[in-house]
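Lecture notes, continued. The same structure-token format from the folding unit now serves as the input rather than the output. Read the line below as a description of shape only.
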């Protein structure tokens, strides 16, 4: 099993997600390093703790401000990349389609920044494409899920099932997907395994 730790960013701080209820997210406090609870809301300190404890070389970073269209944490992401040269970042920056040359995004070490195009912010399935000019590799599909189906803002996606989205992404040349069961985030309940197996079979 490979553990990919997460850093959720809001207003420059690392916050702790729970059930996708973003209004309830609070600055990270953790016993990750053992002993007493510690404030790890500084994203660089949290990354250092992950590296020390888990020896990870890949982390998932969600910019909640970008996702909610109220700012960005690009400077923080750039500092994370600069701080730890051995890491790559799966970056959910609220993209509504594949990133294009000149688009606003963290500018440090772009070859180590793996953009996620997530259903929560994706406009249409036609925007899923592996052919991104200047990109090192195709973007990663972010399949955001609730107990009832796909989480999306686009009416064009609302009627499309999760399996069909995965199959369409595969047809369009995307090689990887990250599945996020939003209502289970931070609840210690783990993923719904039968559903996960079914989605793995779909693509």
């Amino acid at each position: 099993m490979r553990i990919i730790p997460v850093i959720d960013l809001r207003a420059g701080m690392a916050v702790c997600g729970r059930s996708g209820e973003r209004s309830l997210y609070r600055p990270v406090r953790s016993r990750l390093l053992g002993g007493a609870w510690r404030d790890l809301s500084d994203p660089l300190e949290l990354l250092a703790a992950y590296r020390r404890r888990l020896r990870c070389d890949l982390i998932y970073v969600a910019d909640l401000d970008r996702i909610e269209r109220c700012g960005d944490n690009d400077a923080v992401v750039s500092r994370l990349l600069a701080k730890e040269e051995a890491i790559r970042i799966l970056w959910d920056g609220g993209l509504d389609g594949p990133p294009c040359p000149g688009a606003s995004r963290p500018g440090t070490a772009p070859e180590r920044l793996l953009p996620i195009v997530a259903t929560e912010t994706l406009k249409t399935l036609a925007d899923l494409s592996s052919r991104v000019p200047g990109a090192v590799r195709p973007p990663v599909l972010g399949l955001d899920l609730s107990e009832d189906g796909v989480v999306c803002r686009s009416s064009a996606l609302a009627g499309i099932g999760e399996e069909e989205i995965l199959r369409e992404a595969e047809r369009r040349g995307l090689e990887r997907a990250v599945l996020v069961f939003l209502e289970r985030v931070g609840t210690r309940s783990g993923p719904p395994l039968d559903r996960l197996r079914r989605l793995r079979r779909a693509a």
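Point for the exam: DSSP finds six helices and eleven strands in the chain.
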